[in-house]
Amino acid sequence: MRLPYIPNPPTPENEEDRAIVQRVKQRRGEAGLLELDLALLHSPPVADGWNSFLGSIRTKTTLSTSIRETAICRVAVLNKAWFEWEHHAPLLQACPDIKEEQIQNILRSPAHSAGTDDFDEEHRAVLSYTDAMTLDVSVPDAVSERLRKSFSDREVVEITATIAAYNCVSRFLVALDVGERNKPSGPLEK
Which InterPro entries does this entry report, sorted A to Z (predicted)? Predict the structure, then answer.
């Protein structure tokens, strides 16, 4: 980490900051505070907004877990955010409709080529959209239309917000080397 983590447990200076720490702890549940939280809590208002926004992305959208985690895991791979990958790949692995070959496809496919025949059309569309948003920012009309054929307008907004949010997360993680995973060239081997 390029900054020291705040102490765990945190020792907030005032009641407002204590309330923020409690909201972050509440969202994390039994897992407790992550290194990401201990970095963000250097600025409690930023941690609070982050917690609310990412909490909504993770728990209040209509997206299936496999669609959401496919997008998040692909963002992690493209941005070499291995801390993010290591937290989200297990969530994707737990999806009953996802096989190990698909996870390896997400992990090992070159840019703009993930989502081969290993996936259904919905997942292929999400992978193409994720690659375009993450690598090019501007999404070609054909990629956007492909996504819109498989998802409702609400789902397109939620997929777009998820990809955008996790690009933010990965950039924060990598820039500050949260979890000390910035230098490795891939995920930890199990």
Answer: AhpD-like
